[in-house]
From TrEMBL:
GO terms for molecular function: L-alanine:2-oxoglutarate aminotransferase activity; pyridoxal phosphate binding. This is alanine transaminase. PANTHER family: ALANINE AMINOTRANSFERASE, ALANINE TRANSAMINASE. Keywords: Aminotransferase, Pyridoxal phosphate, Signal, Transferase. Pathway: Photosynthesis; C4 acid pathway; Amino-acid degradation; L-alanine degradation via transaminase pathway; pyruvate from L-alanine: step 1/1. Gene3D superfamilies: 1.10.287.1970, Aspartate Aminotransferase, domain 1, Type I PLP-dependent aspartate aminotransferase-like (Major domain). Belongs to the class-I pyridoxal-phosphate-dependent aminotransferase family. Alanine aminotransferase subfamily. The keyword Mitochondrion does not apply. SUPFAM superfamilies: PLP-dependent transferases (SSF53383). It comes from the Eukaryota. Residues 1-20 form the signal peptide. Residues 36-387 form the Aminotransferase class I/classII large domain. Its cofactor is pyridoxal 5'-phosphate.
Length: 411
């Protein structure tokens, strides 16, 4: 009886505070879950009805069909990345091409599974551009060392660098992977975070299909998460990977690895389906939902622009345009005395700067050395996530600290 009482209370709360379409959606989701409750295990790939919803969302986004059987729901994008690294890497002779600077998940996962990270350097001078010539050079260099390249990681929009790839560049990447028979691992978790009018997000699946390539032509794994975008539900641990272009035998192995963890958490599965199926025109919640979405993304764009301008005003600091994601990755030219002081403190120069900044102001940035970078260059990553009304105070504290730091260590 207590169970029914709680259920009735939930329903009353829904009726009082939620729009009609939200209530309808909640009951639709319950109908898709065996037993109409979230406490039991699901299919190892995720609840079929929720995968159907996600497939429909992908199709609406890209204009090309998506198969729910290609979708594996996971506890955020990170477990999906680990899963693919586990499947791809057989020994230290297997290499994965990764962008530098890179999100440390990739280097950590490759190391964990016993493979070799093969770096390709993004070109800071061209706004963190991805040059195919650099991919070719690194591929050949790895082969000369007896390393077999298995996959290429692309993060778009970029983390920590914040660039958004052009469609033409994406086509070059698809061609490269097809020619070299590489699995393309497309980290697309920031697909909603675009801040400049001349760039827009295109999924690699959409790009490959517009080029006329079907599933048999290229092996592609696309990652998405509820942690990013304008949702920010990091602790809910929801995400998925869409796996296309693999033989039935390999698909069976992917399913076996997914089955080891039984299933991802049900709340995260539900959120992933909601991220890919927002309210539609005519829904009662449509206007309020998109007003909130637009307000969040507009505010993030303003914060990015403000911080970008502030960083470029600092002595010795240059920062590329913030096109997407949630970060800026400025380059900092440090005085020789600061580099010597860092060496004496047994720290990388950018880590020394970041520690001093934290101690003096409470502002947290991540040293570029934590993401890898071109040797001899120094950077730090800062987010655009502080509340918009706090950004001016942060800029003031950062500016005052930086001036004092440069004066202290001036050659």
């Amino acid at each position: 009886m207590f169970k029914y009482l709680v259920s009735d209370i939930h329903i009353l709360c829904l009726l009082k505070f939620c729009s009609a379409d939200s209530i309808e959606r909640a009951f639709q989701i319950l109908d898709q879950i065996p037993g109409r409750a979230t406490g039991a295990y699901s299919h190892s790939q995720g609840i079929k009805g929720l995968r159907d919803t996600i497939a429909s969302g992908i199709e609406a986004r890209d204009g090309y069909p998506a198969d729910p059987n290609d979708i594996f729901l996971t506890d955020g994008a990170s477990p999906a990345v680990h899963m693919m690294m586990q499947l791809l890497i057989r020994s230290e002779k297997d290499g994965i091409l990764c962008p530098i600077p890179q999100y440390p998940l990739y280097s950590a996962s490759i190391t964990l599974h016993g493979g070799t990270l093969v770096p390709y350097y993004l070109d800071e001078a061209t706004g963190w551009g991805l040059e195919i010539s650099e991919l070719k050079n690194q591929l050949e260099a790895a082969k000369s060392k007896g390393i077999s390249i298995r996959a290429l990681v692309v993060i778009n929009p970029g983390n920590p660098t914040g660039q958004v790839l052009s469609e033409s560049n994406q086509k070059e990447i698809v061609e490269f992977c097809k020619k070299e028979k590489l699995v393309l691992l497309a980290d697309e978790v920031y697909q909603e975070n675009i801040y400049v009018p001349d760039k827009q997000f295109h999924s690699f699946k959409k790009v490959s299909r517009t080029m006329g390539y079907g599933e048999k032509d290229i092996s592609l794994v696309s990652f998405q998460s509820v942690s990013k975008g304008y949702h920010g539900e990091c602790g809910k641990r929801g995400g998925y990977m869409e796996v296309t272009g693999f033989s039935p035998d390999i698909r069976e192995q992917i399913y076996k690895v997914a089955s080891v963890n039984l299933c991802s958490n049900i709340s995260g599965q539900i959120l992933a389906s909601l991220v890919m199926s927002p309210p539609k025109v005519g829904d009662e919640s449509y206007e309020s939902y998109f007003a909130e979405k637009d307000a969040i993304l507009s505010s993030l764009a303003k914060r990015a622009k403000t911080l970008e301008a502030a960083l470029n005003s600092l002595e010795g600091v240059t920062c590329n345009r913030a096109e997407g994601a949630m970060y800026l990755f400025p380059r900092i030219e440090l005085p020789k005395k600061a580099i010597e002081a860092a060496k004496s403190a047994n720290k990388a120069p950018d880590a020394f700067y970041a520690a001093r900044l934290l101690d003096a102001t409470g502002i947290v940035v991540v040293p570029g050395s934590g993401f890898r970078q071109v040797p001899g260059t120094w950077h730090f990553r800062c987010t655009i996530l502080p509340q918009e009304d706090r950004i001016p105070a942060i800029v003031t504290r950062l500016t005052e600290f930086h001036k004092g730091f440069m004066d202290e260590f001036r050659d």
